[in-house]
Structure to design on (108 residues):
C-alpha cells in the first residue's frame, strides 16, 4: 500500500489537462525549453513554468540550464511505477469479477 501511495503525486500531477499536454510533448519530442513548450498554444510561459514545477515536484520532470534557457526533460520512471500500480489494480479487478462470475454461475 505504501508503494502505491508513492504514486499519488504522479496521478495528481497528471490530473490536469495542460500538464498532460506538456508530458505528451516532452515524451514525443524529448527535452524542450519553456519557449518550445509554449509554441502553438494559448498558454503563457509563466503558466507553463508553474505546470512544469508541479511535474518536477511529482518527480516527472527535471530541468537543466543550457545557456540562458532552461531545458525540461521527462523522467519516465515515475510513469512506469504508476503504470505498474494501475496494472496491479486491473488484475485485482479482473480477479474480483471472475470470483463474482463464478459465484453467480454456481447459484444457477
Amino acid at each position: 500500500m505504501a508503494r502505491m501511495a508513492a504514486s499519488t503525486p504522479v496521478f495528481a500531477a497528471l490530473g490536469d489537462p495542460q500538464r498532460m499536454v506538456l508530458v505528451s510533448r516532452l515524451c514525443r519530442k524529448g527535452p524542450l525549453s519553456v519557449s518550445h513548450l509554449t509554441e502553438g498554444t494559448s498558454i503563457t510561459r509563466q503558466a507553463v513554468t508553474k505546470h512544469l514545477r508541479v511535474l518536477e515536484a511529482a518527480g516527472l520532470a527535471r530541468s537543466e540550464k543550457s545557456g540562458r534557457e532552461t531545458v525540461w526533460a521527462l523522467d519516465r520512471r515515475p510513469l512506469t511505477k504508476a503504470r505498474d500500480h494501475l496494472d496491479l489494480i486491473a488484475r485485482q479487478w479482473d480477479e474480483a469479477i471472475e470470483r463474482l462470475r463464478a459465484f453467480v454461475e454456481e447459484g444457477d
In short: The chain has one domain: 2-106. The mean pLDDT is 90. The two ends are 37 Å apart (CA to CA).
